[in-house]
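Tokens for Delta-aminolevulinic acid dehydratase. Go.
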Amino acid sequence: PVIHPTARTRQEAEPMPYPTERPRRLRRTPAIRRLVAETRLHPRDLVLPMFVKESLTEPVPLQSMPGVLQHTRESLRRAAVEAVEAGIGGLMLFGIPTHRDAVGSAATDPDGILNVAMADLRAEVGAETVLMADLCLDEFTDHGHCGVLTASGAVDNDATLVRYQDMGLALSAAGADLVGTSGMMDGQVAAVRSALDGAGALDTGIFAYGAKYASAFYGPFREAVDSALQGDRRTYQQQPGNRREAAREVALDIAEGADLIMVKPAMSYLDVLADVARDPAVTVPVAAYQISGEYAMIEAAAANGWIDRDRAVMESLVSIKRAGAQIVLTYWAVSVARRLTAGEDLG
Ligand code: PBG
């Protein structure tokens, strides 16, 4: 080996006894790196969020989320089969109705798009894949808020809980394994649990969006669900700077009967995720949602040639698992599952 002249001079003048620790030994070959990897990703860790829109006759690609579609009922079934074949852990369904009103009637209508599409998926995939749905009213209300409003326009917590109960029952009847309570109303997990139990739906679980922040990174999701929202969700979703508050929200959800806990968004909240995952009081599985804006940022930077897309995608997912998520919701679930199955390294 060629030793730099300066280094040789210094070595001869004063032999260096260090470094005695050489961490690079464990990075030398891909095989060694694989052996010592602290974080592994498996297709079953991944959940694919999917959008189905009532009025469509053809699937529509989303501008702000290249590669993601608003599905028709028919294209949803086909895409779900592909996702199952890729070996992912589950699907999370969002519905976009044609008719929107003040109380989000379409959410609780058994013939509403979310409920019929859930039934389609159940018929298509059988018990083989975990089926989940977002339990929230924002796709169904004409004002775009996650609940119903008071006369003065505030989101009415307790009136919303009644709507969530009915929505939970409708989704359970349609075949959902888990309902994702994402509205950040106080008491929503207890309310939905008691409604499910009261109807004998003891096996329908609650995937609680325990810590959910009022994030600008939901931006592309607005296009994905044709959101009607004016204003923001700051009176119900958490403010980004609050970390301890997440522990309180998560503790409440667990006490109310949450079967799984989610942190959302993921990448800007990895500290919160790590807190939740390490909290000894959190004995349910912990998930994180890599949301629309996280997807869009990486896709946009990659499309400009500014970052290596495939590596950035894998790194983002590994970082979310490293922070403590056992399950990751990601719009890349299928492509990443295929890459993992093909034996690709995690970076
Ligand atoms: C609420 C809901 C939202 C997302 C998932 N469930 C929107 C919001 O809270 O404003 C966002 C998901 C994403 O951005 O990928 N129904």
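The pocket of PBG is lined by residues 134, 136, 138, 146, 182, 218, 221, 233, 291-292 (CB under 6 Å).
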